[in-house]
Amino acid sequence: MIKVIVAGAAGRMGRRITYMVEQHPDLELAGGFEQEGNPEIGKDLGELAGIGKLGVNLSAGLAGVIGEGDVIIDFTFHESTMKFARLAAEHKKAMVIGTTGLSPENLAELKSLAADFPCVQAPNMAVGVNVLFKMARKMAAILGDDYDIEIVEAHHRMKKDAPSGTALKLGEMVAEGVNRDLAKVGVYERHGIIGERTDQEIGIQTIRAGDIVGEHTVYFAGAGERLEITHRAHSRDNFAKGATLAAAWVTGRANGIYSMFDVLGLQDL
C-alpha cells in the first residue's frame, strides 16, 4: 500500500482528499497536518472527514509526520507549498501539488527541487478539466484567427487567487492552438472606454461569488455563430479523486515534474 500524507487536512479540500484516499484500493492514509496552532490538531482525521475514526490524528506541521508517508498531497497556499516541496526534496518524498497561484519563480524553483523527488503538479486535477484543456487547444487550432477567444471562470467568494489556475492553463492551451503568447495577448480586465477588441487578444474574466465550486467556459465567437465549451464542478470530490489517482501513479516514478496529462495518458492527444 502507498502511504499518503495530506497537507491542510482540516480544511474543506483536505477533508475530501482524506475521504478519497480511503476509497482508493492502493492508498493508505498515513498522516495529515495543519499549521501549528490550528484548533483541530490532535483530532482523528477520519472524524474530521466525517467517515469515522481511522486512528490517524492531525499533526502540527509536515516535519513531524513526513517520515510516515510515501507521497504528500498538497492543495494549500503557494507560500506553504514551496516550504513543503523543499522538505519533500530533502526527504525524497513524492508530491502531488494542486495548489494554484504559483508564480513563475515558484514553478522554476519547484522544477529544480524535483530533481530530488517525483512530483505531479497541475492547476486542476479533475479528469474532465484535463480533457477540456486538450479540447480547447484543438478547437482553437481548428477555428484559428477567425474566432475571438474568451474565457470566463467562476469560483466561491473565499478563493484567494484570480484568475484561477485552471483559467490561466486554458488560456495557455488556446494560445498554443493559435500560435500566440498568452503573456503578450492576455486581457484580464475591461472597464471604461477601451476601444475595439483586437484580433489577437485572449480575454480571461473572473467571477467570485457565494459557494461556487468552480466553473470554466471557453467562448469561440465568430461571425454569426458562437461555440462554447464548459466544465462545471459540482463538488470538490472531482479534484480530490484526481489527486488520489496522481498519488498512486507518481509514487516510485523517476524524479521530475509530471502533469495530469501524464497521469491520465493524455500527453500525446
Throw out a few tags for this protein.
269 residues, Rossmann fold, 2 domains, seven-stranded parallel sheet, five-stranded mixed sheet, 9 helices
Structural overview:
There is one protein chain. The chain is elongated. 35% of the residues lie in helices and 25% in strands. It has 9 helices and 12 strands. The protein folds into 2 domains: 2-121 and 236-264, Rossmann fold (3-Layer(aba) Sandwich); 127-233, Dihydrodipicolinate Reductase, domain 2. It has 269 residues and is α/β, with parallel strands linked by helices.
Q: In which order are the strands of the major sheet placed?
A: 3-2-1-4-5-6-12
Supply the number of helical segments.
9
N- to C-terminal separation?
31 Å
The structural class is alpha/beta
Mean pLDDT: 96
**The CATH topology of the largest domain:** Rossmann fold
For the sheet with most strands, the description reads: 7 strands, parallel
Number of strands: 12
**DSSP strand (E) fraction?**
15-25%
Q: What is the helix/strand order? A: EHEHEEHEHEHEHHEEEEHEH
Oligomer: single chain
Tell me the name of the CATH class of the largest domain: Alpha Beta
Can you say what the CATH homologous superfamily of the largest domain is?
NAD(P)-binding Rossmann-like Domain
Q: What is the CATH architecture annotation of the largest domain?
A: 3-Layer(aba) Sandwich
- Any idea what the radius of gyration is? 19 Å
